[in-house]
Specification:
Elements: H1 14-35, E1 39-48, E2 53-64, E3 70-71, H2 77-83, H3 86-106, E4 113-117, H4 120-124, H5 128-139, E5 146-151, H6 152-157, H7 159-172, E6 175-181, H8 188-193, E7 198-201, H9 203-206, H10 213-229, E8 232-235, H11 241-250, E9 254-256, H12 266-275
Parallel strand pairs: 2-4, 4-5, 5-6, 6-7, 7-8, 8-9
Antiparallel strand pairs: 1-2, 1-9, 2-3
Helix pairs in contact: 3-5, 5-7
The structure holds ligand C2E and calcium ion (CA) (3 copies).
Length: 279
Amino acid sequence: AKDRGKNNYQLFTPSMNQDAMHRLTMEYQIRQGLENNEFILYYQPRMDLALNKVVSSEALVRWQRDGNRLTMPGDFIPIAEESGLILPLGEWILKKAISQALAWQDQGLKGLKVSVNISSRQFQQKGLANMVAQTLTETGLDPRLLELEITETTMMMDLEKAQRVMEALGRMGVGFAVDDFGMGYSSLYYLKNLPIDCLKIDQSFIRDLSTDPNDTAIVDAIISLCRTLRIHSVAEGVETREQAKYLRQKGCEQIQGYLLGRPMPYHELREMVVNGIKP
Ligand code: C2E
Ligand code: CA
Ligand code: CA
Ligand code: CA
């Protein structure tokens, strides 16, 4: 810091200080939040376009602090990731989602799958495969009902490690989806060499699907790539009937997005599956 007389000992500018303070406060509050059970999972439906049926849902974390206000993951996942708190938080999320999927099976929603987001740091964590395997064994959930969503960036950080983890869990029946496909290093190498079941086409390509010829071309290419490689295709961020119609016509297998529903509490998702949807 500049020499400012009495204050020349200060290490941080006021704005850096504020930023660091914010992060420290958040870290502390996330830790408290974990202890006080303030995190909840919402579920967003994923529909199979051929069956016209909700076949799966994605677990999305929310933080319910002070009363009813929900804090969104964008406001705390990055800090949880940086501080390492994503490890206990991520473990809680996995276990919660697995027990929810199990409850759905018991409530007559046989075959309804759950998808769980795995952050980079969590994926690199030693023992992740064991923790998942052990939770599946303890709960008795059919591993085929669990899918883990990982980004391209996460997989590319350490390909050998990714391969080991994915093969170990893949052998049990756990599925892997590439999240935000098209936004990272979309390498054909990993598509060929890792046990990937599903590509989730990033919502940025879906948004202007009907008006931007580049997006149309990219989406067409991804869908046909999936067909060739026998990988499931899912379009994210589908908001309009027009988008859904186009995707169906092109042979995209599944859609997810506000058109079907926003992320919702588990009981609302259950009702939706029971009652069926008419998109
Ligand atoms: P994501 O995994 O790509 O999740 C999809 C995000 O898009 C969700 O935001 C979802 O609410 C939103 N979305 C879904 N459909 C539509 C749509 O039709 N239009 C638009 N505009 N948005 C849509 P959300 O829940 O705020 O999550 C944001 C990100 O935070 C997620 O992106 C994921 O990267 C991260 N995240 C959320 N939950 C978890 C979690 O449990 N663990 C980890 N590690 N990360 C999570
Ligand atoms: Ca995701
Ligand atoms: Ca597999
Ligand atoms: Ca995504």
